[in-house]
Amino acid sequence: MNTWQPIPKRALRDRVAQGVARMTPAQLNLWQAINVPPEKWEQLSFGREGNGFWVVAVIGQTAIWYNDIEDGFNRSRYLKHGRIEDYWCNQDELEITLGALMNSIERGGPDLVLIRKPPSRVTP
Questions:
Q1: Which residues lie below 8 Å from residue 20, measured CB to CB, with a gap of 6+?
Q2: Secondary structure percentages of the chain, helix, strand, coil, to 5
Q3: Cβ-based neighbours of 73, under 8 Å, separated by 6 or more
Q4: CA distance 97 to 108
Q5: How do residues 12-42 score in pLDDT, each as one tens digit?
Q6: pLDDT, tens only, 66-115
Q7: Cα–Cα separations (whole angstroms), residue 87 to 23, 82, 103, 106
Q8: Whole-model pTM?
Q9: Helix or strand or coil: residue 51?
Q10: What residues form DSSP beta bridges with 59?
């Protein structure tokens, strides 16, 4: 018997607020520039059961989203607004995901989100 239920928006907002409260001043500045009101985006490999995952920030062609199956924040590519391309199962808190993004921006070098081979075509 599967007892998993997707996280309600109110509980997600609480989880985001907890992460924001733990952010450094630099993380908070970045967060204020990239956060968006929580919005469900589809993810075709694992997101169907919960009608997608909550995206909470967007920067470039990547989205920060909450994986309520694995209970953690992730950052994935998107090619079309509203659709997360890559499934990740990190169990990171929001400030950890934001810290990894900041490291990628500040230090350059390989970005783990972009290492995956891009899909050959975008499907509608």
A1: 28, 31, 94, 95
A2: 35, 25, 45
A3: 19, 56, 64, 65, 66, 67, 90, 92, 93, 94, 96, 97
A4: 16
A5: 999 999 999 999 999 999 999 999 999 999 9
A6: 999 999 999 999 999 999 998 988 889 999 999 999 988 888 755 655 54
A7: 25, 14, 21, 25
A8: 0.85
A9: coil
A10: 62
